[in-house]
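INFO batch 0412 | record 1 of 1 | parsing
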Amino acid sequence: MSDIVGSSFNTTLSHIAEVSDRESLDTVMKELAAGYALSSAAYFGIGLSGRSKGDPFLAVTYSSDWVEHYKERRFLEIDPVIQTGFRRLLPLDWDGFARSDERVKSLFGEASEFGLGRRGLSIPVHGRRGDRGLFSISCDHSDRDWARDKLHYLRDFQVLATHIHDKALRLEGHWPQEKHLSPREFECLQWIAEGKTAWECAAILRLSQHTVRCYLESARHKLNAASNTHAVSIAHRAGLLLPLM
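INFO prediction complete | emitting tokens
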């Protein structure tokens, strides 16, 4: 699993960088779902340049039948993924949603009938000018496989979600001068600014060294930086980091 996931991560990151239009982004989403053996993958963006909250940016692998059914049943009004996800900073595991509400139970049950998985994760992304994204994946893993693979998914998709959000902004003509970074990217850059190594950052934040390097790589990409030192310099000039001690 780890070799396959690592290959999929690098391939997907490269393909996201090459996206130049909506169709190619949709293709990347399908490739991502296949590469990670997922039932579905979806990006939902609001507050992007030139778009209102009522006109979201969508890149999904869902069938058109499910999209139409979702709209007809007005599931948006009660979907806990949407209603909760955009207000969160941390990832959401769908297993944590209470399903005592009959409409919510119907939503997840009918989603499964249309090919979405029973398990799911949603990764929120918050920009610095009100733009927000929500990247969600679903699968039909067993309890044992989900407990194992979810850790890989959390590691990879927090990075991939920010790159997809960044690409959606670019496709909308909103080039990233605001330099939106995730909370973890901020934390990693802040500790690098304090003179810590990636290993020390990992120990402080209780993450793996590989995960810290992924966050730093993502931050460098979004800041168009050639190195961690360069990224820290750019972030300081943009007022994104706290003053050095």
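INFO post-check: Residues 143-171 form the longest helix (29 residues).
INFO record closed
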